[in-house]
């Protein structure tokens, strides 16, 4: 698994790690039941503090992307990720709101905004279909 972190980014490292693992699942590079490195191993592999990895793993566990077993270690949730429900869709709307507002301020058309969303959505679907 390739983790690409931008240490110069304003985005926190743990957030980047969360996003990279979720992208790995979306692109089917990571499948249900696949193991992830332990907190210590991941931290050592990518050269970050183990507390940063632990924070990312705890968030992923809370959101249902991974399971953490004392004996088995860290694995992608064997049952897969739960399907979107009304609460999740409300969360999506809340997260998109600032992007839509900023796009309008920057005079991005609705068509262009939706085109960008569609391209990203297709990128994940195409990657997943190749696996």
Automatic annotation (TrEMBL):
Gene3D superfamilies: Winged helix-like DNA-binding domain superfamily/Winged helix DNA-binding domain (1.10.10.10). Residues 11-79 form the HTH gntR-type domain. The keyword DNA-binding applies. Keywords: DNA-binding, Transcription, Transcription regulation. It comes from the Bacteria. One of its GO terms (molecular function) is DNA-binding transcription factor activity. The keyword DNA-binding applies. This is HTH-type transcriptional repressor YtrA.
């Amino acid at each position: 698994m390739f983790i690409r972190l931008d240490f110069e980014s304003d985005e926190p490292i743990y957030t980047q790690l969360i996003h990279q693992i979720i992208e790995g699942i979306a692109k089917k590079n990571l499948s249900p039941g696949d193991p992830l490195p332990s907190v210590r191993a991941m931290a050592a592999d990518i050269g970050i503090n183990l507390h940063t990895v632990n924070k990312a793993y705890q968030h992923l566990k809370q959101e249902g992307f991974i399971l953490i077993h004392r004996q088995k270690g860290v694995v992608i949730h064997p049952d897969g990720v739960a399907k979107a429900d009304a609460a999740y869709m409300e969360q999506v709307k809340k997260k998109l709101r600032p992007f839509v507002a900023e796009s309008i301020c920057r005079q991005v058309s609705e068509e262009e905004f939706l085109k960008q969303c569609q391209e990203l959505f297709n990128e994940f679907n195409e990657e997943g279909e190749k696996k």
